[in-house]
Structures are given as structure tokens and as C-alpha cells.
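Input C-alpha cells:
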């Protein structure tokens, strides 16, 4: 009897264990999460053997036969970014309106709220452009756009007399939302752990760099413009 021989998948216990793997091993082979495998198994999309103890076992042969199909149906990077942008823009719009009703942002008029919303959208587009960039030039352009938008947000806050601490606090709330949404999107799309970790780390570094731009914009707007004094030195005593 060959060591590769197994019984049919009709609910009987397999006679050879090397052919059968746990749900976690099968998930690694397929590049999907265990939760996804459970859904496929429950829906009958992939057959499994259940041990007397209630643990699912997956056939390596069946997995190998399914892998080409799985590779063509998994969501793409573009799918992930489009979904993230739509969700983030909706959140940004709601957050801008809430900020306008909360101290110390209550003095913002509708025009200022629109500006904040527009610049926050530019930040989101720039960040997603960075995550999607395949060339250094593309990444640099996306980062420059996001920096400009972040500085504009800080400048508007400074001009309207909103303190630096309140400005930073609001930015950190936006940062937390973006990281949370990115994490959730990678889980929903079953991205590989290594890939999703790289995306989250890159986004976090970019958002930290953009915070510096917010602070610089705020500082530039809040700083008084020095008077230009004609003549040499002070006019005192003349």
C-alpha cells in the first residue's frame, strides 16, 4: 500500500495522516485566514474530514486543486484601496461636521468646514497613493500632496485661533481612524500577515510625518509677522 493513499472524503477516518492537515496549516498553504476556511467548509465549497474530537482536517490534494481558483478570486490591492477611500472619505466628512460643533472649533463657519473636509480628503488620497505606489517618484508625489494638505489644515487652525494642543488632538483622532480602517480592511480582504503589517507600518510612519506638517502649518499661521522698520535701527530718540 502506498504511503500517499487516502480514503475517500465520505466522512470516514483517513488511514494516513500525512495527507491531512489542520485548519491552521491549510490556511497557511492557501494564504487565507482560518475563519475564511471555516466559511468555505460550512458552505460546502471545500470538503473536510472531522475528527471524533470535532477538529477539521483538510486534504492536501484538495487544497492543491483549489489554489488556482482561489488565486483568481481573491480581492486585489485596488479593491482594498477603493473600499478604504470610500469609507475614510465618509468618515472625514462626518468628523469635519462634528468638529465644527465641538469646542474649540465652534467658530468655524461653513466655508472653513468645507476647507477642512477638502484637505482631509487630500490627506486620505495622498496616503492611499503612497500605499499603492510602485515607483519612488509616484510615492514622492503622493507624499508631497499629503504634506501640503496636512500643513493647510494646521494653518487654518492657527489662523482661526485654535490652540496647537487641540489641533494635534484632532489630528491624532484622524490618525487612529485611518490606522483602524486600514487594519480592518486587511482583515476583511484576508491579506497575508506580512503584507498587511508592511502597509500598516508604512501608513503609521507617513501619518507621523504628516503630523509634523500640521504643526508647522499651525506655527506659521500663529506666528506674528515681524514689522518692517525703515531706516537704520530704532526710531526711538529721533
Amino acid at each position: 500500500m502506498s504511503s500517499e493513499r487516502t480514503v475517500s472524503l465520505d466522512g470516514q477516518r483517513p488511514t494516513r495522516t500525512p495527507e491531512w492537515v489542520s485548519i491552521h496549516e491549510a490556511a497557511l498553504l492557501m494564504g487565507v485566514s482560518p475563519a475564511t476556511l471555516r466559511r468555505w467548509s460550512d458552505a460546502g465549497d471545500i470538503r473536510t474530514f472531522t475528527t471524533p474530537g470535532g477538529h477539521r482536517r483538510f486534504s492536501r490534494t484538495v487544497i492543491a486543486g483549489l489554489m488556482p481558483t482561489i488565486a483568481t478570486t481573491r480581492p486585489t490591492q485596488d479593491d482594498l484601496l477603493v473600499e478604504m477611500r470610500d469609507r475614510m472619505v465618509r468618515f472625514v466628512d462626518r468628523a469635519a461636521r462634528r468638529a465644527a460643533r465641538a469646542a474649540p472649533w465652534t467658530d468655524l463657519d461653513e466655508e472653513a468646514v468645507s476647507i477642512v473636509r477638502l484637505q482631509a480628503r487630500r490627506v486620505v488620497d495622498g496616503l492611499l497613493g503612497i500605499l499603492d505606489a510602485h515607483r519612488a517618484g509616484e510615492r514622492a508625489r503622493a507624499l508631497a500632496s499629503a504634506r501640503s494638505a496636512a500643513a493647510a489644515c494646521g494653518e487654518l487652525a492657527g489662523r482661526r485661533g485654535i490652540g496647537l494642543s487641540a489641533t494635534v488632538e484632532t489630528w491624532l483622532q484622524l490618525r487612529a481612524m485611518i490606522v483602524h480602517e486600514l487594519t480592518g480592511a486587511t482583515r476583511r480582504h484576508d491579506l497575508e500577515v506580512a503584507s498587511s503589517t508592511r502597509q500598516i507600518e508604512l501608513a503609521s510612519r507617513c501619518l507621523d510625518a504628516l503630523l509634523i506638517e500640521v504643526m508647522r502649518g499651525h506655527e506659521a499661521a500663529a506666528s506674528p509677522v515681524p514689522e518692517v522698520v525703515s531706516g537704520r535701527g530704532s526710531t526711538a530718540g529721533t
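Residues 77-220 form a domain with the Globin-like fold (CATH 1.10.490). The first strand starts at residue 20 and ends at 22.
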